[in-house]
Amino acid sequence: MVHLSGGLLLNGILCIIFGLAILAAPDLLAFIVAIFLIVIGLSLLGAWWKVKQTSKQWK
Q: Model's pTM, two decimal places?
């Protein structure tokens, strides 16, 4: 459970960082890709938080 949680956190943060970096380029396609990456990153961070909360309940 710990490895899954760490992977979700890392991937979520990376998606958000790359999404914010792409937002620096004002092209429409880059904007769409950046929004997509940020949404995926937020979803991964939400999943990480849920896994962390669930693992605390099982201990």
A: 0.71
Nearest to 37 by CA among 54, 52, 20: 20
Phi, psi of 24 (to 5 degrees): -65, -25
Give yes or no for residue 5 having a pLDDT over 90: no
CA proximity to 19, closest of 7, 30, 29: 30
Q: What are the residue boundaries of the structural domains of the chain, listed by start?
A: 2-58
DSSP alpha helix (H) spans, the chain = 2-22, 28-58
Nearest Cα to Cα of residue 5 among 44, 42, 58, 59: 44
Q: pLDDT tens across 9-24, in order?
A: 888 898 998 888 888 8
